[in-house]
User: Which sequence fits this backbone?
């Protein structure tokens, strides 16, 4: 199939304004969008810039806006996007070049919620055990690959770049509800502030955008309830 790819480009060395450029490529229906981008870069225009790495939906590096929705280019099949495709960098992030966005602030927000195990007990002689039921409570949040697709799809971020964003809340959830962790109160205090969970408007864009199928909005609501009740055990 022959596909017309309309790509929003930006090169700071050419000026301050982005511009659109169209390419035509011949692809198989089961080729991925990443394959089509590679074909353009390798055969038509080597200056086209985008992130890519594992190409298997694990690293999350090739998140971009495809036909108006945030997706991983390595997971989108050409048969599912049609013969005319519009590709843009994700919204809510400063654009470095073409489809590459600056994610420094995204990772700063991620680090701000203390996304690591906090436990003040003495080191145990063996690993800290938990039951399958305890693990299941926070299991969905462990699937996050920090691609930024959920955060870049959120209108609350578009309007307020200081908001912590859904990806950070998901990763905070992963530890707030971990039975081995003792830092829930610290994280809930962070997320209870002005730019914490309460900026979420329950739009569900984040859930739609997640390439790992994480119920992002549901996890955010669980964190809200944990803050209101003062105890994660009462929120699930």
Assistant:
């Amino acid at each position: 199939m022959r596909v017309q790819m309309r790509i929003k480009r930006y090169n700071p060395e050419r000026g301050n304004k982005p511009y659109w450029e169209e390419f035509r490529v011949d692809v198989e229906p089961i080729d991925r969008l990443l394959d089509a981008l590679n074909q353009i870069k390798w055969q038509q225009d080597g200056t086209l810039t985008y992130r890519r790495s594992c190409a298997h939906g694990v690293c999350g590096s090739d998140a971009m806006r495809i036909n108006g929705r945030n997706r991983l280019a390595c997971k989108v099949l050409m048969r599912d996007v049609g013969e005319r495709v519009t590709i843009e960098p994700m919204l809510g992030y400063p654009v470095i070049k073409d489809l590459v966005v600056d994610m420094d602030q995204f990772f700063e927000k991620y680090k701000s919620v203390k996304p690591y195990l906090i436990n003040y007990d003495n080191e145990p002689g063996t690993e800290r055990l938990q039951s399958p039921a305890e693990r299941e409570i926070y299991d969905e949040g462990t699937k996050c690959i920090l691609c930024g697709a959920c955060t870049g799809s959120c209108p609350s971020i578009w309007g307020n770049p200081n908001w912590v964003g859904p990806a950070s809340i998901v990763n905070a959830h992963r530890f707030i509800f971990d039975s081995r962790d003792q830092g829930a109160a610290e994280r809930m205090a962070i997320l209870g502030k002005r730019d914490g969970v309460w900026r979420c408007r329950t739009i569900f864009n984040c859930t739609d955008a997640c390439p790992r199928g994480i119920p992002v909005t549901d996890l955010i609501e669980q964190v809200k309830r944990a803050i209101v009740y003062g105890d994660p055990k009462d929120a699930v």
